[in-house]
């Protein structure tokens, strides 16, 4: 298979538990959302895409324009 680059935009909304904020700020810093959330989001998004690709081989064949019909 050839690998193609795909650009995906993800909007992440987070709402930490208010009672946990002091611990989060102490352990991770005030900018935790800028440092921690992007890497978590990338990891979750990557695994989600791989999972979808594994579940949808027919769709992938269609997208890659292979001539063989999906059975």
Describe it.
- Mean pLDDT is about 80; it is low at about 65-70.
- The relative contact order is 0.10.
- By secondary structure, this protein is mainly α.
- The protein is built from four helices and no strands.
- The chain is elongated.
- The chain has helices at about 20-30, 30-35, 35-55, 55-65.
Question: How would you sum up this structure in a few lines?
Answer:
The chain is mostly helical.
Notable traits:
54% helix; disordered C terminus; 4 helices; 0% strand; mainly alpha; 71 residues
Mean pLDDT: 79
Number of strands: 0
Q: Supply the helix-strand structural class.
A: mainly alpha
Stretches where pLDDT falls below 50 for ≥5 residues? 65-71
Number of DSSP helices? Answer: 4
**What is the N-to-C order of secondary-structure elements (H for helix, E for strand)?**
HHHH
- Please outline the major beta sheet: none
| Percent helix range | 40-55%
Radius of gyration: 19 Å
Layout of SSEs?
Elements: H1 21-28, H2 32-35, H3 37-55, H4 57-63
